[in-house]
Design a protein that fits this description.
10 helices, alpha/beta, 265 residues, 47% helix, 8 strands, homodimer
Chain lengths: 265, 265
């Protein structure tokens, strides 16, 4: 019984940020990585070498190995990768926030999702213990396997279905991708005026440190939450030559006030 | 000559986040805080006690003391505070990013701005050494005084005029206030679905750590920068019941792609 829920060998398909990180992390956690698959021979070799795996560029090579395969490819490529494994007996697991498990269950019996709620950058080390892993599977046994596997890396493993996972993914996009973009806008505004981006770093650090400890609505500062119309109007005027940033400034300011009022109700 | 550019005693008007922080920081740096002024007796007393100052609720009390006064009140209150000091000989210094120095020069000869590019939260300690202080003054001698004062706290003191300061302030609003708001939206989406905000904290931490070291455009991840239309459309549909968040999702995604293309040119 214990044997059944253990995974000792996996293969990793995809050598992007997620594939790179998960292959490395599971390798370090004692899992054997049998194959690393990439359409690029160079990428396959590079990662395979790091994790003691065989580099593979042709998916059909690995479909006769019945272990668990982590599919770490872009969302729109998952279904064509899955198709290669139709009726192969391989346990397929994708790592996407917003693609349902159904894309895999259509082609194979044992399927699952292992979604790390984190942003990954190739080459940057990561502490996994607190990273939430959201898992889902076709059956209890496969779910237990995924749980055992994820718990090798993290203390925070949760069973979450595809719909809930998509909602959490949207929240993550606001918290991570979109806030990163606002810093891109800030960097661009600094750059346009020949100021150094570095000047903003202590502010960014402090903003995020507050968010680790405080409710973000309580942490909100700035002209919008004070409803300081004179400043807001002056800023909108300054942004007349940047209509998209101006529109974002307007929408975000209105929304900050709306959230403040909602939470003060 | 050296004597002239030193400041040994200041008064602080306003006991909000900025007043609280600057009074405390300058007190710890060895400056005598003579008066702490607030319309609220309770607030004046509370801060005055911490920094060994006299609490004051009536501005006219301090206008005969010729030292430097830090005006840490909201932007729309600066001009009425300044009016109290007309022809008093007091050196007035405000701490606002987007209010010009002219609001002070209209009423007094010695005026300046000392704007810390940081977000302040009462009660939360702050490391000042790397916080940029943007200063401006009516004349060289007063500018030197402000420089000497600011350098007691920070290694990063820059002379910046009112127009440039406003532009930097707008950048800071995107990097700090607006990114904080996006985390508020994320928290709200988590809450709506009964998920814990805490789950997002490792993601927020990692997002920030990347921004300390990487160019934000290079650090951008997510469906928008990959131009993954299927995922983006699915997310927009999920947000149909939240039109404002939906609009922000759409605008931010379009803008992420635009920045990617612009920076790849």
């Amino acid at each position: 019984m214990i044997q059944e829920t253990n995974v000792s060998t996996i293969s990793v398909i995809g050598t992007g940020n997620v594939g790179w990180h998960l292959a490395t992390a599971f390798y370090r956690a004692g899992i054997t990585i049998r194959h690393v698959v990439s359409r690029s021979e160079e990428h396959a070799k590079e990662l395979a070498e790091q994790v003691g795996a065989a580099p593979v560029t042709d998916l059909s090579v690995i479909k006769d190995h019945p272990e668990l395969c982590l599919v770490c490819v872009s969302d729109d490529a998952i279904s064509s990768v899955a198709e290669t494994f139709r009726d192969s007996g391989v346990g397929l697991v994708h790592t996407s926030g917003s693609t349902g498990i159904s894309v895999l269950t259509e082609v194979c019996q044992q399927a699952g999702v292992l979604y790390p709620l984190q942003t990954f950058t190739k080459g940057k080390d990561m502490e996994y213990a607190q990273v939430p892993f959201l898992i889902e599977a076709t059956d209890t046994t496969f779910l237990k396997k995924l749980k055992t596997l994820a718990e090798l890396l993290s203390e925070k493993v949760f069973e979450i279905d595809s719909e809930a996972r998509r909602k959490i993914h949207i929240a993550a996009i606001f918290a991570c991708n979109f806030s990163n973009h606002l810093v891109s806008i800030a960097a661009d505004l600094m750059n346009e005026n020949d100021f150094d981006y570095e000047l903003l770093v202590p502010l960014i650090t402090e903003t995020m440190e507050k968010l680790q400890k405080m409710n973000p609505v309580a942490a909100q500062t700035g002209p919008a939450v004070r409803n300081d119309r004179a400043i807001i109007d002056r800023h909108l005027e300054s942004l007349n030559n940047r209509p998209r940033e101006r529109e974002l400034y307007k929408l975000l300011s209105e929304n900050i006030l709306r959230y403040r009022n909602k939470h003060n109700e």
